[in-house]
Fold:
Amino acid sequence: MIKNEIVFELIKSMGKSEKRYFKLFTSKQKGNKNYLILFDAMDRQKSYDEDALVKLFSAPAVKNFNLTRQYLYSLLLKSLHGFHSGSSTDAELKENLHYVEVLFGKGLYRQCEKLLPKIKRLAYRHEKHLQILEILSWEKNLLQNQGVKLSSGKSIEDILAEEETVLKKLDNEQKYYAISNTLFKRYTTHNKARNEAEVKAYEKIVSHELCSREDKALSYNSKYEYHYIKELYYYATGDLTESYNHLKKVVSLAESHPGGIERASSRYLTALANYCYLCYLVKKYDECLEIIRKMRAIPAKSLKEKADIFRTSYIRELELYTHKGEYSKGLSIIRDVTDGMEVYRGKIGNASIVALYFYIARIYFGAENYSASLQWLNRIFNSPELKNYSVDIHCFAHIMNLVVHFELGNTDLLEYIVKSTYRFLYKRQKLYKFESMVLNFIHRKLPKIRSESQLIPVFREMRKNLIKLTEDPFEANVLDYFDFISWLESRIENKSFAEIIQQKNKGV
Structure:
């Protein structure tokens, strides 16, 4: 981020209500209001242009341009603090603890003591352990100023014992977070296990005693992390049913805990997104649609939360239609997706953009619009800022690219594309046996075929070999990204790719 754009970025992150509140907040300010001119000008700009902003001010005011911008930034933060005061449990606790600090500073100890139990009940209800420790610290301060006991009868020994219990829970949470973080880092760099050695690497991470039973988790946060660890471990090692079961518990925990749904754009939304993904992998499609509805029903409090809900829910909906072969339904929401990507430009991470591009390409492929499919694949390949995100999707986008060119009749390009694809996969050490077989098939066998009658026997042989290969669970998961076997079957049976996918899901 360019330093001078900080204020601009903050303004662009604000919603209409926040901007209206800022205007009311500053209406009470006296003196020079050049900062409001700057605010309005930045609000109108689509991209930051400092030269245009400086021209709005007279020569004397230009000298203070940087000070005006800094003052505007300070006022914006104070305004946002006021607007969001009490909007979350954390904000409410901080506000009330500040009241305690003010009352204590005035020597109004009895008023402090009266307020603390209310704050503590809220903190315990939401398991805010750090704030509980702060509340206990205030109780100790009151004891030091009032004598041996509080009016509640609580002694210093009682407070110290309570502190020890809270610290144990915090330590327990920290240990689960550490395991969870190690597991997540392993998954982001290696993805699913492809062999027994990689399975053992995952097993080593979850061999910790805390992962043995749920009752080892002493709080909501610890239980959440316990099931998250389990679901990711089982997913990475190929047990989708167990992964689904633990994700269901993660969602259930979030929905049953007072603060579980409060974090709309983070843990709860992530839990729903992961749960939805596992639902369609285990073919529980009705649950998927219900979860997507849940995501979109979350009351977003900011533009960022709206962007998170948009990207997450539409990635899952596009995935669902590709897995079910309902490509016409996928086509019906592509305009919503592209419009949303424009609305939330800059608020959607590159990994999510790669996923959206890839699933749009798959929707067009299933709808037999191969030119459009190729255009969206090329957006992935030709965007330098996307090349280091979602490595697995990049790999299978290259495989799918070969099939698209074959469908378009670009056989003269296939030899070059096969070589570049092989180099890409080899460089990233992502060459499954499945991929090697597909590349070899397209490179060596397809160019020799001169008629449809020659093509079908070769496709049958390839299908047979691939089915045998996918009996290996480490190879079978490649079909999650692009079902090459179903494409072969569509060619063999002279049916559309969509028909084949739908047949496989019939009755589910």
Notes: The two ends are 49 Å apart (CA to CA). The chain has a mean pLDDT of 86.
